[in-house]
């Protein structure tokens, strides 16, 4: 865990060069010691432009940091940016150019986070940055680390709205991290016998299927065979998931957004199909707004002996493992926590990142992909804005590919214009995966391809509509930048284009 210094660990005293003026924030010592006791290593990532500006000397800075170490340490690494940034006020603005004039380390640039991870012998994806302002969260995202914002009275409301996670104080931040770690920890995943065949279900969209990937790999590690039940919209993504041995595609009328009527004959056919898979167990993955119980009932009818699911609704005897998860946990960890509760953990060495049955993309990353569509229209960026993004990228010398599904040909043609290369409707999912894997970055809203990018390690420029939690649905463990107004009410158009 990497902590910002001023305003996070200690009260902010602008350009402080005096160790006697160091005052830890309330509860800092106790929160840090709890994290150390849990086996986490701690570091500090701090901008100290006062050095370059002559507000204090290197010796003053060393004495102040030594005092902090004495009061709150020891820290396993200190990463300090001593550089000045002439564009400081610009760089702090939401959506601002971010460190354009300066070094690679001054937050919001990701250098300090990357260097801290390296110093700790790990990768940014396994780090959490805790800070009090937006640029701490931007630096975390740009490095591919998680972020927890602990606001002070100086934190702006838009910074709070855009943060992937927010805690009231350092104690709360420690609680959040320890709870997330406990939820997916292998300690929960103990069981007596190895099942021969397990059904995993994720019956909605491609993106939902992709974020469930780590949990499905956990089940696959503990079972001889994994049968996946998916919907028609998630089928192509399910085929790309490692660990899936067999796929059953079915449109479930209690999940599908355009549902067919429920009738006895259909439910009977589904029951027979599921019974024919021969599974003894099932782990039912759902989104927070879906119910696992109708499928649990069908699986009981099909003779499945052990069923696990997340359910706030009372399940009676439908579930053997009734799991509950607080809101705001990243979706891949939410699913992993259900797998763990059912007795399945990722084997050591399998990091809980998204992953596909495909190699990495071409080296060089000579182009950028803009994906203007969205599986949920309310989440899509306005086409005119996507068009401007393509023009701006092309104007800056980038090759821009525009991608979209068969229903998005017109949208893609418009967005590509003459500046971009229009691939709308011309990519089956495996092609899209290859294209995204080879890209320098993907510009996309909150929809399936964002999770493809996370799965192939391509950085995401996220045009994330604030209809659901960014911390839960944002790109997972891959470098990201979030653009747009996180305080905008859902379903209203954004401000007119700036230019
Ligand atoms: Zn620097």
TrEMBL record:
Q: Where this protein primarily resides, as one coarse class? A: cytoplasm
Record GO terms (molecular function) = glycosyltransferase activity; metal ion binding; phosphatase activity
Location in the cell reads: Cytoplasm
What Gene Ontology terms for biological process does this UniProt record contain?
Answer: carbohydrate metabolic process
- CDD domains linked: GT9_LPS_heptosyltransferase (cd03789)
Concerning SUPFAM superfamilies, the annotation shows:
HAD-like, UDP-Glycosyltransferase/glycogen phosphorylase
Question: Per UniProt, what is one Pfam family of this protein?
Answer: Hydrolase_like
Q: Does the keyword RNA-binding belong to this entry?
A: no
Q: Which domain of life, per UniProt?
A: Bacteria
GO cellular component terms, semicolon-separated: cytoplasm
Keyword set, alphabetical order? Carbohydrate metabolism, Cytoplasm, Hydrolase, Metal-binding
Q: Does the keyword Nucleus apply?
A: no
Q: Which family does it belong to?
A: Belongs to the GmhB family.
NCBIfam families, from UniProt?
Answer: HAD-SF-IIIA, Histidinol-ppas
PANTHER family listed in its UniProt record? D-GLYCERO-BETA-D-MANNO-HEPTOSE-1,7-BISPHOSPHATE 7-PHOSPHATASE (PTHR42891)
Q: What is this protein called?
A: D,D-heptose 1,7-bisphosphate phosphatase
